[in-house]
Design goal:
alpha+beta; Alpha-Beta Plaits; 6-stranded antiparallel sheet; about 35% helix
Length: about 325
């Protein structure tokens, strides 16, 4: 009888040990599965153009590298480094107000492209004709600045179709302009070296900026979704308020960019900017069929950087901008 009880206890302990090992094994397998799933989701959230055949083909066609944005858009920056432009004695850096760009977003098996081309006056007509010949849309043509030398125009474009064919068309359009090839990659100067207090400016604006080519840049998305047809337009396709600071010495900076506004916000923002010594240089559309309808307000000033930041923040407070 004693021996039988001993045997049962041994079997019970053995069963418990086996169940414990099985539980640990299952937990380890579950953790591995979740880890792989998280890695897969992270890879999908932040794709790399080199790993996407469609985006790689677009880059090869345009002959320049793009940057895949967090929202999946492939964006190309094409600054007009060939131009020497000045406004009220300030020599405008390419990344400050002379940045042509194009952004591609997948749309089913095709793609959508939107962009903005920086042009001198004698480039406008041939570029417009070529865009129409290639089946691309001109969605706006206007100024962003006032009193600049030479005169600069901005042509906003859009299109839908095969991504590579869109890239081929855009390449042919760019060939009619003086847009230079991409510059060799270089390390940007640290924020502390550009001559203005970038940290303090970020605190005033209410979000972190980034330094790019000596320019402090802020992008402030809107809180609501903007759609075109049945597609939500990603923020990186030009629907975030853009604010740029170019240092001009002694803590001063020139500022420019554009506020992205609903109609009801236009006049409150004009009032806030003008009360803070910031000139409004243009109010217009950039797109044709977006919902809700947007207006883009460009601005300019050259003054104490912190003072201007407070004026910009007062204007931002009149908008339905997303919280940081």
């Amino acid at each position: 009888m004693t021996n039988r009880l001993f045997t049962l206890k041994r079997r019970s302990n053995f069963t418990t040990i086996n169940l414990t090992k099985m539980g640990i094994t299952c937990l380890l397998l579950l953790a591995c599965t979740l880890g792989l799933s998280a890695q897969s989701q992270n890879k999908e959230a932040k794709p790399d153009a080199a790993e996407d055949p469609q985006w790689k083909a677009v880059e090869e066609t345009l002959g320049r590298p793009g940057q895949v944005q967090p929202d999946g858009v492939l964006k190309f920056g094409m600054p007009r480094r060939d131009l020497k432009v000045s406004v009220a004695g300030v020599e405008v850096k390419p990344g400050f107000a002379l940045g042509s760009w194009a952004a591609f977003k997948k749309s089913g098996s095709d793609a959508m492209v939107m962009g903005d081309l920086v042009l001198v006056e004698n480039e406008v007509a041939p570029v417009m004709a070529k865009l129409q010949a290639e089946g691309l849309e001109i969605t706006a043509l206007h100024n962003h600045l006032l009193g600049e030398t030479p005169r600069i125009m901005y042509m906003h474009i859009g299109g839908h179709g095969d991504a590579v064919k869109l890239a081929e068309s855009l390449k042919d359009v760019l060939a009619l302009t003086g847009t230079p090839p991409p510059a060799p990659s270089a390390t940007s100067a640290p924020a502390a070296e550009i001559g203005i207090d970038t940290k303090k400016l970020g605190e005033i604006i209410g979000r972190a900026g980034k330094v790019n080519g000596g320019i402090l840049q802020f992008a402030v998305p809107r809180a609501e979704h903007i759609t075109q047809g049945d597609m939500i337009i990603p923020n990186s396709m030009g629907i975030s308020t853009a604010i740029n600071f170019q240092p001009t010495g002694d803590g001063r900076a020139a500022i420019t960019g554009d506020f992205v506004l609903l109609g009801k916000e236009v006049n409150p923002v004009i009032k806030a900017l003008r009360e803070n010594g910031i000139a409004v240089t243009a109010v217009h559309n950039h797109m044709l069929m977006e919902e809700p309808r947007l207006f883009f307000m460009h601005f300019w000033a050259n003054d104490d950087a912190l003072k201007l930041a407070k004026g910009l923040r007062a204007a931002l407070d009149q908008t339905n901008s997303a919280k940081p």
